[in-house]
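Researcher: I've been going back and forth with a colleague about how Desaturase 7 might be arranged in three dimensions. Neither of us has a model we trust, so I'd like an independent prediction. The organism is Streltzoviella insularis, in case that matters for your notes. Sequence below.
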Amino acid sequence: MCNIKIKHPTSISATLREFEKSLGFKNDIKWTNFILISLYHVVGVYWSYYYTFPVKWQTVVFAGIMYVASGFGVTGGAHRLWTHRAYKAKLPLKLLLLMCFSSAGQNSLEQWVRDHRVHHKYSDTDADPHNANRGLFFSHIGWLMMKKNDEVIKRGKQIDMSDIVDDPLLKFYNRYFNYFKLMFCYILPTTLSIWLWDEKWHCAVTWQCFIRFLTVFHSELTVNSLAHAFGYKPYNKDIMPAENRFVATCSLGEGWHNYHHAFPFDYKAAEHFDIFNFGATFIKFFERIGWAYDLREATPVMINSIANRLGDGSPVQFPMSLDEGNEKSVS
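Model: Here is an independent structure prediction for Desaturase 7. You can compare it with whatever you and your colleague have in mind.
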């Protein structure tokens, strides 16, 4: 008889740990995440290759609308409102932002806010969840495939999250987040395409679950990777975050990252308005209709002062509302 020895699960775990060490990883690989993320991309490429076309124009337009809505949930909601408290929002806007954030298919709001607050406090150190010093792959997506190291966990526990965990609305939202994500990211966008204009189901899946979702997913991740590796630094030349127009364009205004790390409280996340900063444009719109208020901004004096002291000499721009958008070099 054939005598086949099957490794005990603990032996498999030990083998995986040895494999991780041989690759020089500081963190253990989160194998469930690694496999699921990798498979999602493989299936997405395969599925999109066969079912992207023919497609109805309404499906393409709707995917674009969902891209902007998902992005606004991240930029205007999780980032600028709940992480940095750059402005205040009334209940209708909070509900809209939570729905939009759900459609982005990211980690829970509580996880997102904690990770980002740690990132700002310990940017590009061992305590940063997506430390850019560990390379583009890690800072872009690798950190989602690995367990947090001890320093990240330690510092994360020290972050004040009382405004998030004690908020009744957010407490309810975080408790049922996976259901909201499933509904607003996958089920509702896909089925609307089928119900409203009779799109083929496999094409609707392509444009919402793969093309739209993965484009939003990677656009937001470029803020952690590309915006910490490429660009100029008019506000602080001694940190890794940089001004990156490509990132600003695909992430709806999040790529002016050197400015953002200098003035994280500014609701624009940029010193000026640009056509693709939908996050700032929408927040300003909601201020006009009374849903957003107490918008915080850095003043031209503050901007010029820190640029003169710490910047690399690159031109800076004052906010358009204060200086009509004219570019001014630091004197």
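Researcher: What would you highlight for our discussion?
Model: I'd start with this: Residues 28-215 form one domain. After that, consider the following. The CA atoms of residues 83 and 165 lie 12 Å apart.
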